[in-house]
């Protein structure tokens, strides 16, 4: 069985990679903070595809509440169009 305990250096690299991914979602990078060390780029695979990361990083409860709020403002014609589209998608 392989050793599953990370060294201090590995823990630091994983922490830096997580910080880099969080900063990247805000349009920033560790490069923007020169005193900070840089993350190992092999650990920061999500940065190459930040759109997926951003799309998966949302508040479902907030979106559900907004959906209910917006649905209540629709006209009957808009409701019919919405229902038709959702039926076709499902």
What does this structure look like?
The protein is mainly α and 90 residues long. It folds into two domains: 1-57, no CATH class; 58-90. The radius of gyration is 21 Å and the shape is elongated. It has helices spanning 8-25, 50-56, 60-71, 76-89.
Order of helices and strands: HHHH
- As a percent range, the share of helical residues equals 55-70%
Rounded Rg: 21 Å
**Category from helices, strands and their pairing:** mainly alpha
* Shape estimate: elongated
* Uncertain stretches: none
Largest sheet: none
Beta-strand percentage?
A: under 5%
- Tally of DSSP helical segments: 4
- Mean of pLDDT: 83
Number of strands: 0
Number of domains: 2
The first-to-last residue Cα distance is 46 Å
Give keywords:
90 residues, elongated, 2 domains, mainly alpha, 57% helix
Task: Please outline what is shown here.
With 90 residues, this protein is mostly helical.
List the helices and strands and how they pair.
Layout: H1 8-25, H2 50-56, H3 60-71, H4 76-89
